[in-house]
Amino acid sequence: MTDDFDDQCLPPPLPPPLVVAYDPTWPQAFETAKARILESVGPHIQSVHHVGSTSVPGLAAKPIIDILVGVHDWHEARVTIPPLERIGWEFRGPRGIPRRHYLVIRLPDGRRTHHLHMLELTSTPYADMLAFRNHLRTSPAAATDYAALKRQLASGPQPHPGAYQQFKAPFIQRILCSLRG
Fold first, then answer.
1. Residue 152 Cα to chain centre, angstroms
2. Three-state SS letters, 45-104
């Protein structure tokens, strides 16, 4: 027996995330999901926004529609989870963001098609998601740089779950810090 680390004991790297060219059907996919959300839980929520890369015209993205739902109170918003589950959303808890209700829609093969981020209207993550989206929509240079980063990160295997998000984080934080002044 040796003290050398045996690379064969490591789990295989994860496949790279799929980043595709902008799809002009993404806004309609958002509108369809928004209508179902409002029909299901409209009285309990205050806003519904299309966020994430699929909300930025022309931006390459993972083909997942990100939806930001604003609520007054995170605890009271828990009443929305069962009705959302009835229309196909899978509740995943906060998933690393305190006071977030995070839900996903998956295809039968397990691929996610939609993410729902339910946050309090007064929270920093809520404001950050909107600010980052708005900046990418109004700054072609930032959108181009972000697309290049995303394609680079998606060009090879991922060393661990969450690596894609982790490696994008410094770019996002740099933008948010510049927006805060």
1. 18
2. CCEEEEECHHHCCCCCECCCEEEEEEECCCCHHHHHHHHHHHCCCEEEECCCCCCCEEEE
- Across 20-39, b (16+ Cβ under 10 Å) vs e yields eeeeeebeebbeebbeebee
- Position 1 scores a pLDDT of 47
Q: How far apart are CA 115 and CA 142, in angstroms?
A: 23
The pLDDT tens digits of the residues spanning 48-59 come to 999 999 999 999
**3-state secondary structure (DSSP) of residue 116:** strand
Q: How far apart are CA 18 and CA 30, in angstroms?
A: 19
CA-wise closest residue to 66 among 139, 118, 20: 118
* Helices and strands in the chain, H and E counts: 5, 5
* Secondary structure class of 136 (helix, strand, coil): helix
Predicted confidence (pLDDT) per residue in 72-112, tens digit:
999 999 999 999 999 999 999 999 999 999 999 999 999 99
- Can you give the C-alpha Rg of the chain in angstroms? 18
Report the share of the chain in percent with pLDDT over 90. 82
SS3 for 145? Answer: helix
